[in-house]
Amino acid sequence: MFMKTRWLIIDRQLKRNISKKLLKINRKKQKTEHSSSLGNQVGHSKKPNIQNKKSIPSYSPFTTNRKSKRKLSSIFKKVISSRKKRKMEKIDKVDEVVEPIDRISELPEPIIHHILSLLHCPRDVARITALSKKWRSIWASFFFFNFDQKRFKTSGGDHTEKFITFVDNSLASKLDPMIRIHKFKISLSQVNPKLKLYTNKWVYSAIKRNVKELEIHVEEKKKKHYMLPNFILTSSTLTSLRLSGCKYDNEIVINLHNLKELSIKNSHVDKNVIPNFIRGCPLVEDLRLVHCTGIGHLEISTPVKLTRVELHECHGLVLINLEVPSLTSFLYIGKKSWFCEINIGDCENLKCLTLKDSNLTDEEFQDMITKFPNLEKIALRECDYLERITILSMKLKELSVIRCKNVEEANIDAPNLSVLEYFGERMPFSSMSVGSLCEAKLNLQNKKDNFVPLKELLIFLMKFKRKGDWKMVVSSNKNVTIHEDLKNVPYLTSHDLKLELIKSPVKVKGYIGNLLRMSRPKTLSLVSSSSSEFLKFVKEKIMSREKNPKCCTYYSKKCWLHFIKDVKMVVFEGDETSQELQQTTFQFTWKS
User: Fold this and answer.
1) SS3 231
2) Sequence-distant (≥ 6) Cβ neighbours of residue 88 within 8 angstroms
3) Within 13 Å and on the Cβ side, how many CA atoms surround 255?
4) For residues 14-44, b (16+ Cβ closer than 10 Å) or e, as one string?
5) d(CA 102, CA 99)
6) What average pLDDT does this structure show over 514-543?
7) What is the predicted pLDDT for the residue at 8?
8) Is a pLDDT exceeding 70 seen at residue 165?
């Protein structure tokens, strides 16, 4: 209403101004024409000639007013129509920009299901489904069951009956109207004949309702395992199966033609079980065997779609022979006293390789990596026989060498390497180029009195000084120092030294949050200029915090802000030689 009256007032004012201008023009015209007509009539009789009356033009004010009104009305129509057009165009543009779009509700149903499956707390699920009506309706058709027997433990008495009653009541009230279940997970802390029967009944109910993901975890006590029933291994809807502490029949028929993920943990697996799974699961992409015994030989050469294979401390595994061209990730973790022959040379598309093998030699490693031209990530853990590492790769992006205590030299030629991680007593990377690095983590430990890798370390750090925009984090004995300018880094003499070199400012800010949350240091020092933006960020984050933070009100796990009891800030001004650098130290007192 206000806009309409405003436009009416403007139109009236414009009307008046235009009419005034037109009247002035007409009056001037009348005066000039009237004066010229008087000059022509000089010497003639005052009595006008009746015959020539029609030929004499009439200049009465009535005729001029009619013409001016016509012109005025046409002008007004044009002005009003053009203004209406402009106004409508503005309204359309505003509508285009301001009109809210509910992008959350537009998400596809599988993505919403995936988001809901990542939320383990029912309260979080209830909160997030308040975002839109679509989410609430999808939640009504999406069910994720998670039953854990440990939650029913009491100080005295048997808690098994309470657990059985709870699961029975929960499933009775929710399963009947349901057509499908997304995920069913059950964790058992003990197994007895009665609980086995009920577990079979619950799992069968989930299988009947087309469950997609099934997890069964049984704690190993007195070698009592849960015998896996046959109906689980013939489900046509299962896409993920995770089993822990279960027993398997050697002659069981496996027909899981939609299964893509298989994980077996803490189980005794005879040599025929894994081949049966591979044959009965033609679409399996992810295979993980964790703390399993009895495998002996793992040989996979049939046409499969495996992309990931992980083997964690499987006792008795002596041979791995994989001929899988589709494999992109391989992980093997063994123990020092174990020997296992690894043949994966035919997996030419391998991109990620992780090895923890104390018997791996230089020749075996070199022979292995030369067969994988597409490697992007290499991780070596406790490979004690390794002495020299030579890597020539155009595609390698991440390299990690952890506790390989005998490595003395590393020749790395990888122009696209962005992340380097090293944990050891020496510094074998002093000759490496750092041109493409974005992050470097170095943890040097002194277990001997002759700890002298500092020279090699300083040579390595000098390369970062020339590049600029690097920040170095030095950690030692709960004291953390961040240097913004590597040109003024002091001489390093600590016996237990952790260094992190970070290039991205976003990663540095995230690193501060993770550091305070995980390690809770005594002091955090920043060596920087007084006008540093990073210093301002840290000051605001730490010193301007609330006494009772509300950032984690709805979360059981609180962030570091909730655990600070007190913080003191001390500033040490730099001298003339330090180029106006100052050290700002935050001294923390944490809640117990």
Assistant:
1) helix
2) none
3) 6
4) eeeebbeebeeebeeeeeeeeeeeeeeeeee
5) 10
6) 88
7) 44
8) yes
Residue 521 in any domain: the answer is yes
Distance CA 252, CA 245 (A): 17
SS3 62: helix
The domain in which residue 581 lies consists of 475-494+514-546+558-592
**Quick check: helix, strand or coil at residue 311?**
strand
d(CA 318, CA 338): 8
Side chain identity at residue 278, one-letter code: I
Other CB atoms within 10 Å distance of the CB of residue 429? 24
Which DSSP category does 349 fall into?
A: T
pLDDT value, residue 434? 79
User: Is the pLDDT reported for residue 12 higher than 90?
Assistant: no
Task: State the pLDDT at residue 109.
Answer: 74
Q: How confident is the model at residue 38 (pLDDT cuts 50, 70, 90)?
A: very low
Residue 82 located in a structural domain: no
The tens digit of pLDDT for each residue in 565-584 reads 899 999 987 654 455 788 99
Token digits of residue 335: 């123990």
pLDDT at position 291? 95
Q: Which long-range contacts (CB under 8 A, 24 or more apart) does 455-460 make?
A: 456/426, 456/427, 456/428, 456/430, 457/427, 457/430, 457/492, 457/499, 458/492, 459/430, 460/427, 460/429, 460/430, 460/432, 460/434
Q: Kindly state whether residue 368 falls inside one of the protein's structural domains.
A: no
> What does residue 424 show for φ and ψ, rounded to 5 degrees?
180, -170
Alpha-carbon Rg for the chain in angstroms? 40
Count of the separate structural domains present in the chain: 1
| Three-class secondary structure of residue 232 per DSSP | helix
Q: Is residue 580 part of a domain?
A: yes
Quote the mean pLDDT of the chain. Answer: 80
Q: Which residue has the higher pLDDT, 75 or 314?
A: 314
Contact 104, 135 (CB under 8 A): yes
CA 35/CA 584 separation, integer angstroms:
92
Do 444 and 401 touch, CB atoms closer than 8 A? Answer: no
Residue 282, SS3 per DSSP: coil
Q: What is the pTM of this model?
A: 0.74
Q: For residue 67, give both structure tokens.
A: 């013409």
Q: How many CB atoms sit inside 10 A of residue 257's CB? A: 14
Model confidence at 415: pLDDT above 70: yes
Which residue pairs, CB below 8 angstroms and at least 24 apart, start in 21-25? 22/68, 22/71, 22/72, 23/68
- C-alpha span between 480 and 489 (Å, rounded): 14
Q: Which of the pair, 35 or 219, is modelled with greater confidence?
A: 219
Tens-place pLDDT, residues 353-391: 999 998 999 999 999 999 999 999 999 999 999 999 999
